[in-house]
Design brief:
The chain has 592 residues and is an alpha+beta fold. The chain has three domains: 263 residues, 3-Layer(aba) Sandwich (Beta-lactamase); 96 residues, Beta Barrel (Lipocalin), CATH 2.40.128; 101 residues, Roll (Nuclear Transport Factor 2, Chain: A). The chain is built from 14 helices and 27 strands. Strands 1-3-2-15-14-13-12-11-10 form a nine-stranded antiparallel beta sheet, sandwiched between helices. An eight-stranded antiparallel beta barrel has the order 16-17-18-23-24-25-26-27. The chain has a four-stranded antiparallel beta sheet with strand order 19-20-21-22. Helix 2 runs parallel beside helix 5 and helix 2 packs across helix 8.
Length: 592
């Protein structure tokens, strides 16, 4: 799983002194000023719900290794540095290393055709090589079955894979494929005569000193494992789901699902610095930027993504997850910096955003810190729940979710404020770009794409714009039906940058488009699934002051609740925008 390319916003740099930790957990390390800074950030993040483990190292020394939040909420068990997490598609780097290990042994070649290892390969797949499988360029689809389907034996999986239609000809283009890596795992078993996990254990894990990494061979106890939570509901752990006697079914095996600890992942990183696992020649192939992942910004090696220029640095990385558990591994090779992060909460998937912020802290890049929160009782938080009416008759609904509040807004004013706007209606830039966004979209929906072309300042050919715009229009009309109307639903300003969201009404629903403007030109267009800012998680800073926080957005919505002097009950909420406050009165009685 790779993160999508996003428009990056410049964030204000905040400097803060982090106190030393008051207590220690088993095996944790917090070393030096850098370690304390990372721990301070993560402690704040824990206050807005983060649960997971982090290990960061620099110049061959661990500066932070610590767990945050709960490994099992119901059992009141905290995450420690030794907690075991599934690491998802980071598994692919072990499969890649296994293939290279076998090549070092003279047992195979990455140039081999798969016809050497599988019989009855269909003609369209006979040109697939191990190199194509390792670099997601075989043309195979992403997946062909469920992770926990235990009917997917090696023979059954191979039959399904050979029968599936290719997305492209072998070697033609990058197409991320779990299927390809599972086939590589089957090849490991065929060539070595060992089970996939047993081969990894003998040839990769034991030489690296990794004792808590694998599927079933480490024989994990429930007390070691992190429990996954999907949208706050208990999901469990991968190794407690249906398994074959020697590991997961082949829809998951060798492409994902391996478990590990932060310490073991650091041992793996250390082992790759030397030659005890892979030779220098093998590592050149392992870390080579073989195939463009799209856009020329990152390339795929043999189980790794290679980013030549990230924050001005060379990065070798991979993430993984199943939408519940999520992990991220980053190796800044020229700076001797390694970061591993894992989480057991779907609300923090992908955890790449956490690793991104830790990278920024280590390298001194601008960063917006999470708010410093306090804990309020459920009774106090429940008191704020209800419906509040905005000045424009729009509504804001507030409900308690665990130890914080969730706000949902309807109406232009609420949408604007929840998206980080000021609520102002007299900003000339907001007015101009709102009108221009609606105009160029309305013209495009009528078949005239010159407005978008002009707004981009001729940076994109008109033919390319027309092809891309027609593509999403056809997709949405197939999904929602015939186009009816459009409306600007929010417009916000951050410095010289204005972000406009336009809602398009169709027969069977509404779709949204984000336009980002700056310097008098259109900087980007993006389809979005819903109106950003139409809801926000807000966290208590004091008994009456709250602030929103999201790793995926720089928007920070500040709220104050006004209490009745006599009863102490909330009577209004106020959006705090600079020196201004926009009031929404709490309704009494039932819903309208």
């Amino acid at each position: 799983m790779r993160p999508p390319i996003r428009i990056l916003l410049n964030l204000a740099l905040i400097t803060i002194l982090f106190p030393a930790p008051a207590s220690s957990q088993t095996g944790e390390i917090i070393r030096g000023e850098e370690g304390r800074a990372l721990d301070g950030y993560l402690s704040r993040l824990e206050g807005v719900g983060f649960s997971g483990v982090v290990l960061a190292a620099r110049d061959g020394q661990v500066i932070l290794e610590k767990g945050y939040g709960y490994a099992d909420r119901e059992a009141d068990r905290s995450v420690t540095a030794a907690t075991v997490f599934t690491i998802g598609s980071i598994t692919k780097q072990f499969t890649g290393a296994a293939i290279l290990k076998l090549e070092m042994m003279g047992s195979l070649s990455t140039d081999d055709s798969i016809t050497k290892y599988f019989s009855d390969v269909p003609p369209d797949k006979q040109g697939i090589t191990l190199h194509h499988l390792l670099t997601h360029s075989a043309g195979l689809p992403g997946a062909i079955g469920d992770d926990f389907d235990i009917t997917a034996t090696a023979d059954r999986f191979t039959e399904l894979a050979m029968g599936t239609e290719l997305r492209s000809a072998p070697g033609q283009q990058y197409e991320y494929s779990n299927v390809g890596f599972s086939l590589l795992g089957i090849i490991v078993e065929k060539v070595s005569g060992l089970g996939y996990e047993e081969f990894l254990r003998r040839n990769l894990f034991e030489p690296a000193g990794m004792t808590r990494t694998g599927y079933l061979l480490p024989d994990y106890t429930d007390e070691e494992l992190a429990t996954g939570y999907r949208n706050g509901n208990r999901w469990g752990s991968v190794v407690r789901k249906p398994m074959l006697p020697d590991g997961p079914g082949w829809h998951l095996r060798a492409n994902g699902g391996i478990h590990s600890t932060a310490g073991d992942m650091y041992r793996w990183y250390q082992a790759l610095q030397g030659d005890q696992i892979l030779s220098s020649e093998a590592k050149e192939k392992y870390f080579a930027p073989h195939v463009d992942e799209g856009g020329g910004q990152s390339f795929y090696g043999y189980g790794w993504s290679i980013v030549p220029d990230y924050m001005g640095r060379r990065l070798i990385t991979h993430n993984g997850g199943n939408g519940i558990f999520t992990a991220d591994f980053r190796n800044f090779v020229d700076d001797e910096v390694m970061i591993f992060t894992a989480s057991n909460l779907s609300t923090f998937a992908p955890v790449d955003y956490v690793t991104r912020d830790l990278s920024r802290l280590i390298f001194g890049a601008p960063l917006t810190l999470p708010p410093e929160t306090i804990s309020l009782t459920e009774e106090v938080l429940d008191g704020y729940a209800g419906i509040y009416r905005m000045p424009d008759e729009g509504l804001v609904e507030v409900e308690r979710v665990g130890g914080h509040l969730l706000m949902r807004g309807s109406g232009k004013l609420a949408g604007n404020l929840l998206a980080g706007g000021s609520g102002a209606t007299d900003d000339p830039a907001i007015t101009r770009y709102s009108e221009q966004s609606a105009d160029i979209l309305r013209r495009a929906l009528a078949g005239d794409f010159t407005g978008i072309h002009e707004a981009f300042g001729d940076r994109m050919p008109l033919e390319q714009i027309e092809a891309e715009e027609r593509g999403w229009m056809e997709m949405r009309e197939q999904r929602y039906g015939e186009y009816r109307d459009l409306e600007v639903v929010s417009a916000t300003r951050a410095g010289m940058r204005v972000t406009v969201h336009v809602g398009i009404e169709y027969e069977r629903g509404t779709g949204f488009i984000r336009y980002v403007w700056g310097g008098g030109e259109l900087m980007g267009i993006e389809l979005v699934p819903g109106l950003p800012g139409a809801e926000a998680d807000i966290y208590p800073l004091s008994p009456t002051a709250f602030e929103s926080f999201s790793l995926q957005s720089p928007v920070r919505v500040k709220i104050e609740f006004e209490l009745d002097e006599q009863s102490g009950e909330p009577i209004a909420l106020l959006f705090v925008t600079g020196e201004e406050k926009v009031r929404a009165d709490k309704r009494t009685g039932g819903r309208e």
